[in-house]
Design goal:
The complex is a heterodimer of chains A (about 260) and B (about 450). Chain A is α/β, with parallel strands linked by helices. Helix content of chain A is about 50%, strand content about 15%. Chain A is globular. Chain B folds into two domains: about 120 residues, Uridine Diphospho-n-acetylenolpyruvylglucosamine Reductase, domain 3 (2-Layer Sandwich); about 220 residues, 2-Layer Sandwich (Alpha-Beta Plaits), CATH 3.30.70.
């Protein structure tokens, strides 16, 4: 069971090999997590992340393989991951996503559809199953990785950010739907983070490292706020950006 | 049969359970056997997750009512769902007070046994279990009638076991005789922690009730300044007009959740300052009512809402007599990290009882109310755990919402003895709670 500070003892992470997910898993294991299930696509990376979880104090670590391009398989993946945890599941992290190359999407509808599947359809399918199982359990938390890019979608990455926006809005209302069930859903909106996903991308202001994001999440789990911004100041920055007139918005964001 | 969100008095870590209110031992037994997992709940005054069970069945013991006659020796049998408040309304007019009371009257007798509650008289009278003559316990293997002489190992295993050996349905206890509904109180103010601890070491034996409020936020020379209040029941001859009236209902309540930041380092400092200054430097034989001496916070209903939506944790530990330095170090660590804490309660415990999970042991106990929020808090409390274990002490399960299973094991060396007894009455591990799952107390 999680403790009063939202520190879980059992954690399932979908997209467990991403840099942010690994940072977060390390911090969770250093706090109270002893049971960890990591789900991802790449077996070598999963094993490395699993070894890291053990180093940081987890005593029972398992991995599950899945392909986020195949939403028909999402339910199986959730079931398998949940079955590996004996007892209640305290925290489920959905950190599945792919940034990709905007110009490729613009040129190829099939690739664009695939991108939408990974960033939207697979997470939504998995979340539906996660929600159902946690509600039956009567406790638990879901953390969904969104992005500040979802707050106002910009033209240079509208495929990725648009898919994230869909996920973000859906999750806001899913969180409402969970009132009174004992289950909570929190949305993480990080700014740009230095990770392997963003390698080579120019660094805008408020860029942070994965450890800073993970630290902000730990605080967010304790406070229970519905949307966790990282860094927290972006809440106010995006309040302004969200309301800029479109011509000004294009000018500011494409600089 | 409704699904209800439950949390402890600290309002952290809620979970949803099916709440049932059985009114007989048969119903309790049937529900325990029907549900794969269940736990009893009283008035929800445990601070953490002891009386909740996500996805399971929570048995509200308030249906187990009834107060029997009080005999000439003060012996009374009550339903486990009767609160100390309800009992006192009946008993005080007849000249009887509960032998032990925690800081609130709003606990059931069942809950009081589950937490083996202590009060300001622990150094003289021990905890509630020391005054229980008999109890009836419904377990998955049947109804047991327990007393310190009949199945003593299961009797003691049930005391302080947070409901994990079964559902207590009725309790027979011996009350304490009183002549009046007043207490004579001596108050002293101390500029630092050493002063108050020394006064308690050398003077507590002369008083039946003793407790100190300590300011944990002032740093420097006045770190741990304190107000010590000690007293005993007033005799009829002490007063001009002796009365015996039961407690009244609170007139004030907190009507809504305060913003989470209301109790912050600044407001708590101001409160502590006012509290300290309001106390007399020294005053003897002040006449106080039972309620204002024993249950001051009961005058403000739902005061836990002052901590806002995020809630708060209470950290209460005990360390042996010779480990007074650990108390100093703990207060110093909290003051240094600037984690805000309301006036803390410091008290000396007397001898322990034979219960394997009972909290009190001879020594010093300190209880702190800490709002959830400061990011340093979880780590600081983990550090305090280490200090407490180092000193041979433990934390109180009725207050706990954040301990880890390995630390629990280090603090309660008789844990395996308890688990073996639990397995005896609950071989299929039906009795469980969120706390039991968190601390691996389910017996699995």
């Amino acid at each position: 069971m999680e403790n009063a500070f939202g520190q879980p003892q059992s954690v399932v992470v979908f997209g467990g090999t991403s840099d942010i997910a690994r940072s977060l898993t390390r911090k969770l294991c250093a706090a109270r997590a002893h049971t960890v299930v990591l789900a991802g696509r790449n077996p070598e990376l999963l094993d490395a992340a699993a070894a890291e979880a053990r180093d940081y104090g987890a005593t029972q670590v398992d991995t599950v393989l899945f392909d986020a391009e195949d939403p028909a398989d999402a339910q199986r993946c959730v079931r398998e991951a949940f079955d590996k945890v004996a007892g209640p599941i305290d925290l489920v992290v959905v950190a599945v996503g792919l940034l990709g190359d905007q110009s490729t999407f613009e040129d190829d509808p099939v690739v664009a559809a695939r991108m939408a599947t990974v960033n939207f359809t697979w997470p939504v399918t998995a979340l539906t199953e996660i929600r159902r199982r946690l509600v039956a359990q009567g406790s638990g938390r879901i953390l969904v990785m969104s992005s500040v890019a979802a707050v106002r979608v910009r033209r240079s990455m509208y495929f990725y950010a648009g898919a994230k926006a869909g996920l973000d809005r859906l999750c806001l209302a899913m969180a409402d739907s969970l009132e009174g069930t004992g289950v909570t859903l929190q949305i993480l909106r990080p700014g740009q983070v230095r990770t392997k996903m963003t390698a080579g991308v120019a660094e805008p202001p408020f860029t942070t490292g994965p450890d800073e994001v993970a630290e902000t999440v730990m605080k967010g789990l304790a406070s229970g706020e519905r949307v966790i911004w990282s860094p927290p100041l972006l809440r106010y920055v995006f309040f302004v950006l969200r309301h800029l007139p479109a011509p000004l918005w294009r000018k500011v964001i494409d600089r | 049969m409704t699904r209800t969100t439950l949390h402890g008095w600290g309002r952290t870590s809620p979970s949803v359970a099916t709440v049932l209110t059985p009114t007989s031992e048969d119903q309790v037994g049937a529900e325990i056997m029907r549900a794969p997992g269940s736990i009893a709940r009283g008035l929800g005054r445990s601070y953490g997750d002891a009386a909740q069970l996500g996805g399971g069945v929570v048995l509200d013991n308030r249906g187990l009512s009834g107060i029997g006659p009080i005999d000439h020796e003060g012996v009374v049998t009550v339903g486990a769902g009767v609160s100390i408040d309800e009992l006192l309304r009946v008993s005080i007019p007849q000249g009887w007070f509960v032998p032990v009371t925690p800081g609130t009257r709003q606990v059931t007798l069942g809950g009081a046994l589950a937490a083996d509650v202590h009060g300001k008289n622990h150094h003289v009278d021990g905890s509630i279990a020391n005054h229980v003559l008999a109890l009836r316990l419904v377990t998955p293997t049947g109804l047991l009638e327990l007393s310190p002489n009949a199945r003593p190992e299961l009797f003691w295993a049930t005391m302080g076991a947070m409901g994990l050996t079964g559902v207590v349905t009725s309790v027979t206890l011996r009350m304490a005789a009183i002549e009046t509904d007043r207490v004579l109180v001596d108050t002293e103010r101390f500029a630092d922690l050493d002063g108050v601890m020394s006064a308690m070491e050398h003077g507590d034996d002369a008083y039946r009730y003793s407790v100190a409020w300590v300011d944990c936020m002032t740093r420097g020379a006045h770190q741990g300044r304190a107000i010590l209040t000690r007293g005993d029941h007033a005799r009829a001859r002490d007063l001009d007009a002796a009365t015996l009236e039961g407690p009244t209902s609170p007139k004030l309540a907190v009507p809504f959740d305060a913003p989470s930041g209301l109790l912050n380092p600044l407001t708590i400092k101001v409160f502590n300052e006012l509290w300290f200054r309001a106390a007399p430097r020294h005053r003897d034989n002040e006449v106080q009512s039972l309620s204002s001496f024993f249950h001051p916070l009961d005058g403000l209903r739902d005061w836990n809402r002052l901590y806002g939506r995020r809630g708060f944790v209470q950290y209460q530990f005990v360390v042996p007599d010779q480990a007074g330095d650990t108390v100093r170090a703990a207060i110093g660590r909290l003051a240094q990290s600037r984690v805000p804490s309301f006036l803390a309660v410091l008290k000396r415990f007397g001898p322990a009882n034979p219960a394997p999970l009972s909290f009190p042991m001879p020594g010093w106990t300190l209880a702190l109310d800490l709002p959830v929020g400061p990011s340093a808090l979880p780590g600081v409390l983990d550090e305090l755990d280490e200090m407490v274990i180092e000193a041979g002490g433990r934390v109180y399960l009725a207050k706990d919402a954040r301990l880890s299973p390995d630390k629990l094991r280090a603090m309660y060396p008789r844990l395996d003895e308890f688990l073996a007894l639990k397995n005896l009455v609950d071989p299929d591990h039906r009795l469980t709670s969120d706390l039991a799952r968190r601390l691996h107390l389910t017996g699995e």
